[in-house]
Amino acid sequence: MEKRATFGSKLGIILVSAGSAVGLGNVWRFPTEVGANGGAAFILVYILCVILLGVPLMTAEFIVGRNTHQNPFDAYRTLAPGTAWVFQGGMGVFAAWFILSYYSVVAGWTLQYLISAVMGRVTTMSDSAAYFTEFTQSAWMPVVMTAVVLLMSHWVIVRGVQAGIEKYSKLMMPLLLLIIAVLVVGSFAMPGSSDGLRFLLKPDFSKLDGGVLLSAMGQAFFSLSVGMGCLCTYASYFTDDARLLKTAGSVALIDTMVAVMSGFIIFPAVFSVQTVAPDAGPGLVFITLPSVFQMAFENVPLVGWFFAVMFYLLLLLAALTSMMSLHEPVTALFIERFRLSRRTATSVVTLSCIALGTVCALSFGPLKDVRFLFGLTFFDFFDFLSAKIIMPLGGFLLSIFVGWYLPRNLVIKELTNNHKLRFPRWLFVSFFFLIRWVAPLAIMAIFINELLP
Ligand code: PHE
To answer: What CA–CA distance (Å, rounded) separates 54 from 64?
Structure first.
């Protein structure tokens, strides 16, 4: 059999995984959740969820991928031959496919906003809410933009593991971090930004309740990309000396830093322009921010232009690296299971996602009234099915699989790189405790809460 590709370096491994994790979830969804759930207290709970649930689950997913060096479907088949566990692998791939289809729609909006920002429209539009509605409801542009971002991801994925995913992550991720730094400084420098900082730094614990806890957990899973085939697939390209726990820790740290910094970019800016509310919901980055860029820099439009371009570029880079990680599991499955060439496999994924993405994109406009199951539009249905059902279910089964099903020796062998690394005993004890008990129980709680009206 042909030798399977691997990533070339440890830095590459961290950057590709961070590329998957850092996405619209950090820059778009996290600030929205923070705004809706009362600021700093939410952030604290979120960080706890990342440490106690996110890192162990991500490590568990790495274990499955690196041990087998196969796509998720075959990985579960190898580790649990002749059992129903293959469904877990298959479901991860399936979910990645679905998420990619609707995620590309929002990535497409981002591309549209980046183009508008470059052309100076974002900073001169008179009614940003009307612009957003008009654009998302139109029949052409959202579909075109969805297809274009999918083709961008395609362009990287056809080039393969090292010359595609790793190479471009190594270019895009440092650029992304640099842009974040520039934007944080810019946002702090705005007059009146201190109110925004206070909102982010002074916890109001009276806001904490079960709902906040559950939103924080859900956000942590989504943001860290756990419970899908994505990290498992990336881990199947890890080298034998990659340190799984350390990689998961670094990725979680980068992901959380980017999320918190996005809050530091958005809230001081939003507060400095007092007419817009910080809990403006999902429209925050597409409706609220254009007004902020405009109002804050009325006298120096060039600075407003610069910040707008940088911000949407950041969002697009973040979205693209996550799209790559959703593209690859399905592609790997087609290559390895159906013996397709990488080019054909990638094309099948890209074209099918363009088709599904078109339906999702149109569900804001021409297909608005077409309801799928549960009275949801296509976009909402895809989101619901993948983020609210398959993701928690995937995370739950992952924790059972690695915590209870896999032999303990195999797990320890992967954690220690075949007994080459030494860890204190408490680390194993905590890992197994979190993955066997805390993770499944916590996920069950989120799941039940999400499903209850
Ligand atoms: N973690 C990505 C984000 O924050 C989204 C994602 C979810 C990517 C699941 C891959 C798998 O936007």
So the answer is: 16
